[in-house]
Amino acid sequence: MSLFQFKQGSKHTLFKAWMLGLLWVFTPPLCADDLPQLGETSSLYLSPKKEYEIGQIVVAQIKNQGLVWDDPLVSEYIRQLQHRLTGKSKADLPEWFILQDRSLNAFALPGGFIGIHSGLIETLQDEDELAAVLAHEWAHVSQHHLARLAEQSGLMNLSTLAGALASIAIATQNPSAGAGAMSATLGGASQSRINFTRENEEEADRIGMQILANTGFDPRAMPDVFLYFQREERYLGHKIPEILSTHPLSASRIADASNRADHYPKKSRAHSLTFLLVKTRLNLLEQTTTKKNPQLATAFLDEIQTENKEAVQTYAKAIAAILEDDQHLACSTLQAAPNAHPYFRLAEAECTAGLGQYQTAQTMLNNVLATTPQYRPAVILKAEFLLQEKQVLPAVTLLQRYLRSAKNDSAVYQLLAKAFNQQKDMPRMHEAEAEYRFHSGDYYGALSQYQMALKLCKNQTIAEKRIQAKIKMTQTKIHQIRAL
Ligand SMILES: [Zn+2]
Q1: 148 CA distance to ligand 1 middle (Å)
Q2: Which of 30, 175, 281, 319 is at 20 to 30 A from 36, Cα to Cα?
Q3: How far is the CA of 361 from the centre of ligand 1 (A)?
Q4: What's the predicted TM-score (pTM) here?
Q5: Does domain 390-484 have CATH number 2.60.40?
């Protein structure tokens, strides 16, 4: 039985290997209302739309390398957090994605895309600290820092900029090097660049703290997380946390953030249970995929001081049992300590299905979907159960309904392709497979799937036109990348 999660590349037995569902939204990101509009110089040369296009190309390259890790629960959690921090409606959000990488890092790309290393979530103490890092990154986005940096370096050609970012991402297999490496490549090592970077960093801290205060988080989490990174740096010696190589941390920067935090009213932290469950889940998944000691994965549980400790311990035990394919233990653990949090219900549905009781598992998911019909983790899990049971029609209906408001979700397209394959509906299977590949950044794969679909759709005017338009769009993407 699989803990449902998707990553491109490998197809191992425990985890289904899928790519992340993308939000290919064509709306350029806008600054939040209360933020200073400092991006004017940039927009003279590099419009928000162009920034977005560059970001999209880079993200597609990152995805096509199989670097993005889509665990539906974790992806959905990040999306909720993004929604809260940016105040944007979910349909307008450029994607924030997780990379399976234990190092401490997060990075912003042009257009509002943000990459978050799993190690960051696995390590930080609470949601406010994670929010602080993400608010800082979002501030870089809202202030168009990357575009301004490129502009100052006199590098205004769209394709060169995208090429620089994408090639760095691919060459190093480490897209987080992007921002730092780009500033090094484009800006040289002049003193002015260093100052510029520091200014950017301080501006991102200041605006990030403002975002935290406005969205109900504790602004003090910003200096707290800096102090944590600094302690890590001392502890690790020469091996500094990656985030500090792209966001240099000076004593004055820490002091400045700390002073600013004192000006905000004191705030007690919410100690989000959801954050702790996500952190637990990622630690366990990571330890299992890397075949390390699962006990290490939950060592941090001893440190939890909040009223949530017991719930987190129960969840950790259940997830560890699911991963070890001990579905009886997982289900009995969850039943012995019931909890209303949806993650517990999803885990129970999963171990119940693991025991072969698909009907009961579906009822559990239906209860979740009754209040939140578009809740992605429940939709994906339910579709998987339906397909296991060869109930293809309800699966197709469920997935198509979901895609109406999430048109770019590659993982859902992949499930849809599987459903059409079970139905032996080959034209639709190829079209869904093409969508999956397109939204995973695999444009060549998408093109050949669309062409196969087109061949099978002869004399069906509407389908033909639709697929021809998709082929054209895919070819445009291929040309854009070739031009880099
Ligand atoms: Zn920064």
Answers
A1: 14
A2: 175
A3: 44
A4: 0.84
A5: no
